[in-house]
Amino acid sequence: MKWLLASLLFIAPLAFAAEAPKSADKPSAAAEGDLWIHDYNEALKLAAKEKKPILILFTGSDWCHYCKLLEKNVLSKQDFKDWAKKNVVLFIADFPQKKKLPAAEAEQNEKLSNEFKIQGYPTIVIADSKGKSQGEPDFDSSGTPAAFIQVMEAMIKAKK
Predict the structure, then answer these.
(1) pLDDT averaged over every residue in the chain
(2) Which has fewest Cβ within 10 Å: 86, 93, 131, 152?
C-alpha cells in the first residue's frame, strides 16, 4: 500500500506537468489584449471619441515568425506602449493557427483582411476613425521601438 501511495505521489505531478501549456503556445502580449482592442466597432468608436488614428495589426500571433519578432522587439516594449497610449487606438486582427478565436472575432478579422486587401503578416494599416485606410507603413519587424515609432509618426503626420 505504501508503495502505491509513493508511486501516485511521484506520478501525479508528472501528469499535471504534461498538461501545462508550452511557452510557445502562450499568447503574445499583443494577443492578450492589454492595450489591444479585438472589436473593430469598439476601436472605431474610441478613435472618434479620442480623435486618434487606429493602428491595425494583422498578425498570425502563434505561427508567423516575423509577427513574433515584431511582438518581441517592438510591441511588448514599454516605449511602444507609452507612445501608443498617447497617439493611437490599437486594434488587433489575429489569425492564429493553434488557438481558436470566437466565431464573431474570426469572421470580423477575415472581413477586415479582405477589405484592406492584406497579402501577408504582419501587416499594419493606419486608419482614421471612420475606418478609411491612411496607408500601410513600411517597418522592420526586428527593429527597435524608436525606429518603429518614427515610421508610424511619419505616416500619421503625412495623413493629417
Answers:
(1) 85
(2) 86
